[in-house]
Amino acid sequence: MLKELHTVLPAADLKRAQAFYHDALDLDPAEVHQGTLTYRLDSGAAFEIYETSNAGTARNTQMGWITDDLDAEMTKLRARGVMFEDYDIPGMKTVNGVAAADDMKSAWFRDTEGNFICVSEML
């Protein structure tokens, strides 16, 4: 039976990725093993970052976070150097980095390895 879910992200440079997640997201790995960083969150969720030359090739959202206050989260992340993506595609247009729908608003940024990370607030 499936019991737990966690994300696995690629990194071309594991030390650079580790510095980004520490500096921008205030996260440090709980475990470091043979080219893999494992992050464990207070919620029980976890994600891994592993070193590979394939990093940065995906063009889709690879990890999503839920927050209670997207505006405050974006302000904090921008102060730490995070740049949010802007989109103007059929069905979605961001304003100041935020795409709004009836029940959610979301923003995307890329980590140093080119991974697309989404932060959403349920309305």
Structure characterization notes:
There is one protein chain. The protein has about 120 residues and is of the alpha+beta class. It has one domain (about 5-55, about 60-120): 2,3-Dihydroxybiphenyl 1,2-Dioxygenase, domain 1. Helices cover about 15% and strands about 35% of the residues. The protein has helices at about 15-25, 70-80; strands at about 5-10, 30-35, 35-40, 45-50, 60-65, 90, 90-95, 100, 105-110, 115-120. A 4-stranded mixed beta sheet has the order 1-4-3-2. Strand 9 and strand 10 (about 115-120) form a beta hairpin. The chain is globular and about 45 Å long. The N and C termini lie far apart (about 30 Å). The model has no long low-confidence stretch (mean pLDDT about 95).
Question: Main traits of this protein?
Answer:
single chain, 37% strand, 123 residues, globular, four-stranded mixed beta sheet, 16% helix, 10 strands, alpha+beta, 2,3-Dihydroxybiphenyl 1,2-Dioxygenase, domain 1
In terms of topology, how is this protein built?
Layout: E1 6-11, H1 14-23, E2 31-33, E3 36-40, E4 46-51, E5 61-66, H2 70-79, E6 88-89, E7 92-93, E8 99-100, E9 104-110, E10 116-122
Parallel strand pairs: 1-4, 5-10
Antiparallel strand pairs: 2-3, 3-4, 6-7, 8-9, 9-10
